[in-house]
Amino acid sequence: MRAIWKDIKLYVLIAVVALAAFIIYKYSLLSYLSEENMERIVRAAGPWGPLVFIGINVLRPLLLLPVGLFSVVAGVMFGTVYGTIYTSVGVVIGSILAFYIAKYFGRDFIVRHFGDKLNNFDRISSDHGFIIIMLLRITPILPVDAISYGAGLSKISVWDFILGTVIGILPGTFVYVYMGAILRALSIEKIIIAIILFIAAMLIPLIWKDKIKYLISGNNDKKGM
């Protein structure tokens, strides 16, 4: 009975998400979260604006909205420093929410149906969870939320996930927030700086890639000895 319930709860989640997605896109509810409307909502909250912004950002993974949009809006409204802080807090909390949703609703299903094929994946994710998450966060290849939900299905510990997320999102978040901030006071110098920062953020994964591969393969070789 418990095994059946573990499968049912995943199907219920899928049905709820599908229904919510249908309603949201059918009635164009996402249009209310455009850059202009979001800025209007946050500014209307007055001194509570930062908390409102963080709250919307926390719920963002449920709607699969692009985090870059929130980062740019944060730069426009709060500036580079506070925008980076507020966006990072919202992204981290939202990522933890997505992580636990996947772990509670999906992990048992994955283990039941793909258990034998997960042994190597579980071992690597358990031993190198922090490095894996940090690399995936820094590398702008996979969506932020896809990483969070995927990590929840693995054996990555929550603390490795949180620490890897906090460190990994900072470079990209800062760049996008800075781009939003310069929209308030355009200047050729700031635009050049933004371009340099963006290129640097793209190069970081290439610099670290070989070292991380060495760490993982090196540890695996030691275990095989």
Strand content: under 5%
Radius of gyration: 20 Å
Number of domain modules? 1
Average the pLDDT over all residues and give the rounded result.
78
Task: Give the termini distance in whole angstroms.
Answer: 43 Å
Question: Which ranges are low-confidence, i.e. pLDDT below 50, for 5 or more consecutive residues?
Answer: 220-225
Number of helices: 9
The biggest sheet amounts to: none
Please state the overall shape, judged from the principal axes of the Cα atoms: globular
Number of strands: 0
What class, by secondary structure content?
mainly alpha
Summarize the amount of helix as a percent range: over 70%
What letter string, H or E per element, gives the SSE order?
A: HHHHHHHHH
Subcellular location: Cell membrane
Protein name: TVP38/TMEM64 family membrane protein
InterPro entries: TMEM64, VTT_dom
Keywords: Cell membrane, Membrane, Transmembrane, Transmembrane helix
Structure overview:
With 225 residues, this protein is mostly helical. The protein has one domain (2-224). The protein is 84% helix and 0% strand. It contains nine helices and no strands. The chain has helices at 2-26, 35-44, 49-63, 67-114, 119-127, 129-138, 144-152, 158-182, 188-224. Helix 2 (35-44) crosses helix 4 (67-114), helix 3 crosses helix 4 (67-114) and helix 4 (67-114) runs parallel beside helix 7. The longest helix has 48 residues, at 67-114. Mean pLDDT is 78; it is low at 220-225.
Write the layout of secondary structure elements.
Layout: H1 2-26, H2 35-44, H3 49-63, H4 67-114, H5 119-127, H6 129-138, H7 144-152, H8 158-182, H9 188-224
